[in-house]
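Practice problem: predict the structure.
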Amino acid sequence: MRSRPYCLLLLVLLMAAWTVIPESLMAKENCRIRVDTILAGRDDAVVDPQLSRHIGELQAMFNYTSYRLLSTENLNLNMGQSGLVSLPGDRRLKITPHKIRGGRADISLKMIKQNRTVFETQIQLLNRGSLFVGGPNFQNGNLIFKISSTY
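Answer:
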């Protein structure tokens, strides 16, 4: 029966450690990803008001005169879990966050059309960071995807 006080002491120490361990270390790592689908074209000079704060960055990276926000989709994924975003032109974007290291989330992107992979890449995003990715032709322009993450 001498081990009973040691067991009780161990239990008290474990409970004390549980209260001081940050919740972020105990929780499964989670990544919220937002995908904005933008149609960029040269037929006019219309800029969607929802994109006005990004217009300088868009024009610096892409040679278009108009930018229209077509859709926004949000995913809430655990590390290693995949999610799908529907895209215009019967396409889907499969997004998988893999791990967070060095303050960046490693995320794989795979565009699928008719059950065929048409584009695949890996990106790294800072917490609350975003990245514009040029996409395929659509209607009289091109699709651009703004991918943002929070973790």
